[in-house]
Specification:
With 387 residues, the chain is of the alpha+beta class. The protein has 10 helices and 5 strands. β2 and β3 form a beta hairpin. 30% of the residues are buried.
Length: 387
Amino acid sequence: MANPTDQQPWRLGPRARRWLDRALVGFVLLVGGMGHFLAGQLPAMVFTAAEALPLLWRRSRPWPAFLAVALASALQAAAYDQPTVGQLAFPVAVYSVARWSPRWQGIAALLVGYAGALVAAARWMYGLGAGEVTAANLVPYTVTIGAIVTAAWALGFAAQSREKYVASLVARAEQAERMAEREVELAARDERSRIAREMHDVVAHGLSVIVVQADGARYAAAKDPDVAVGTLETISSTGRAALTEMRRLLGLLRDGDTGVAPQPGLADVRHLVDEARAAGTRVEADLPEPAPDVPGGVGLAAYRIVQESLTNVRKHAGPEARVSVRVRVGREVEVEVRDDGRGAAAHSDGRGLGLAGMRERAAVHGGALDAGPVTGGGFAVSARLPL
């Protein structure tokens, strides 16, 4: 069943409008021309044709068509003192100007119509032998003709106003559609950036742990195979966890998959510390126990900041670096990761996403993040996330 809101108002097409105008002119010529011809009124028949024919261009050239009709009517008033059927074209021409021409032309046509009403009333009364033309017998005819002209002008003006109103609604709807498309595009871009940050954190952290553990396993295999076995188990579990998170993130990009697996939070920071220690990094942790409940987005941001900071320590601080991880929860979540390694002097190509991603995460929640070298050597990351 068709939706009623999808139905468009019925309108004539271009071809139908042309045939309608031709039928209108043909009707006036047939009825008026033949009537005047049969009555022996040849001048009236000529003026009827002169007044009706310009209506063929009343849509494409409404103002010239009106001027032609008005000129023919003026010549008729001067040369013929009786009404003709062709004078029905005058209100049609006034309507056309009010409908399709600028407003000033419509008002001009209305004023010309009022003047024509007065002249036509006086001329008709004189031609019909009404005797002396006085205000008493002139006013009824003038008012009647003027009312017809006013009604024609009002109909045209209302139609033009409605058309402009509909056009403005269509323009606003198109603008709203363009804005909606732009908002969807911006939202998709933001989502891609968010997924890129998540992917960077997951891949960089997981691979850094795997690389460190693999190096350790290679050296330990020759001396203590049991240590190598435990290290390989850590590599396996880390790789599986990273793959699980990657599948969840990639699920957001697939149709029909919402990727609603549980997100890590503040309580999972301890797992990051244990993982870093298992990878050989010397970590001192000061974490709230048990982890307090915080909004999911804030908890995820804190987790990712610690995760990326520990990844940077493994990549840049050196094998002998010591790390302290501190998390405080009060009116805001405070996160600090500080090391005493050589990360401050490490070379960077300037294209990394780590620090930029951490700052973006903090800014999303109205917080701030500071990162840089510390006095005495090392590097520190400090973030504040309001609750």
